[in-house]
Amino acid sequence: MATIAVISNTAWSLINFRTELINALRRDGHTVFTVAPPDKYVDQLREMSDGFYPLKHLAAKGKNPYRDMRLLWELHKMYLEKRIDIAFTFTAKPNIYGSFATQYTKVMAVPTINGLGNTFIRFNLTQLIMRKLYKSAFKYTSKVIFQNPDDRNLFLEKSIVKKEQCLLSNGSGVNLETFRAKNNKIGRPLAFLLSARLVREKGIFEYLKAARRLNRKGVAANFYVLGLPSNNPSSIRISELEEYTMAGDIDYLGHTDKMSEELDKVDVLVLPSYYREGVPRVLLEGLAKGLPIITTDSVGCRETIIDGKNGVMIEPRNTDALVKAIEVMIDSSEEELQEMGRQSRLLAEDKFDVNKVVAIYRSLL
Description:
By secondary structure, the chain is α/β, with parallel strands linked by helices. The protein folds into 2 domains: 3-168, 3-Layer(aba) Sandwich (Rossmann fold); 190-351, Rossmann fold (3-Layer(aba) Sandwich), CATH 3.40.50. It has 14 helices and 13 strands. A 7-stranded parallel beta sheet has the order 3-2-1-4-5-6-7, sandwiched between helices. Strands 10-9-8-11-12-13 form a 6-stranded parallel beta sheet, sandwiched between helices. Helix 5 (92-100) links the parallel strand 4 and strand 5. The radius of gyration is 21 Å and the shape is globular.
């Protein structure tokens, strides 16, 4: 049996996205350490793993090379102390420095590219540096897991990885038991939900403007936003939503740890993202709940939509297209909406079952 480290940039992300992986590895008899900067979810990680290792030097958005070097040595020290055999790493800095840290050890690092974020939306110096870091770090990995084919193809095109290194998973998967299909009764007026970190590239402002425009036309619909500001240069402040909430254009719901229950309350899930996603977890959850979805023909998002079958796919950054897509949903009959929802659930079962994703990691052991 192996000793495994599962590493990410927040304890929260390990709880929300890697629980099934950690549980499966432990059921197989492996020893699993969870590794991340500490937050309020640490106690849960201690309960579900064989130990939690706190990272002191990981600043997800920091650009201090001295601190990053301390992170590298911190991970190297952890590998040796815990006698790690394999490290499954997630998010940019754990992927890069977790791979570098395997030098002079017998640790096998397997990074997962779960989205490239706004750094890879447009070419600039930061992107160039990140490419060089990925290329140098991934020389020390035998396998790299990608969550969508666009990211894999980009890394191949830029010679960051070799073809034989690449594995492809369908996002992080979704637990089909936790996210059971909701009662398919459709409410009127329809309730639309955008749930995401409050980052501009998630299409928040396109959604706000679409809601305002439709409300001004007197269209009967309810628009909700769920999510918190992010430690990101393009994060949206809560105060920026107030103009729309005060005018009655949207209702802001804050944050929840009970996403399945929130999805039970709405009729259509919307994510007009142009962020460089892996595959957005909220869209997988919406599919599993059997919701019609509106999303963009953008990296990661397009994996979840069959246009006209389980929802409507629109051009990114296009408020007019979003307005039309929402109107399509409003004008659809209850039977048509139910069929879209049924197709969403079938897609989740066929493509995004978390057990199929976990099987990829288990196969490496």
